[in-house]
Amino acid sequence: DENLVNFTCDGGTTITAVFERDIVGVTLSDGRQLVLRQAESGSGIRYLSNDTSVEFRGKGNEGTLIEGGVTTYAGCVASN
Q: Max CA-CA distance within the chain?
């Protein structure tokens, strides 16, 4: 089963995430689409790109996108 979650982030940016089994499809408000695979996490959820340069982390109804070690989408809160 897939689960669609819309996140509203700092600066008016958004992330639409579709979670399905061990992957998440992410559409960013800048138009990019990414597919990330579930990875081990100390707490919450963690998904990585194949080359590990992009990471999506979440806990509760909050999420963060990190690209090349830099947080590019911060303060994201699920709105549904």
A: 31
41 Cβ contact list (under 8 Å, min separation 6) = 57
Say how far residue 6 (Cα) sits from the centre of its chain: 10
Q: Please tell me the distance from the alpha carbon of residue 1 to that of residue 73, in angstroms, as a whole number.
A: 26
75, 9 in Cβ contact below 8 A? Answer: yes
pLDDT in tens, the chain (80 residues): 579 999 999 999 999 999 999 999 999 999 999 999 999 998 999 999 999 999 999 999 999 999 999 999 999 999 86
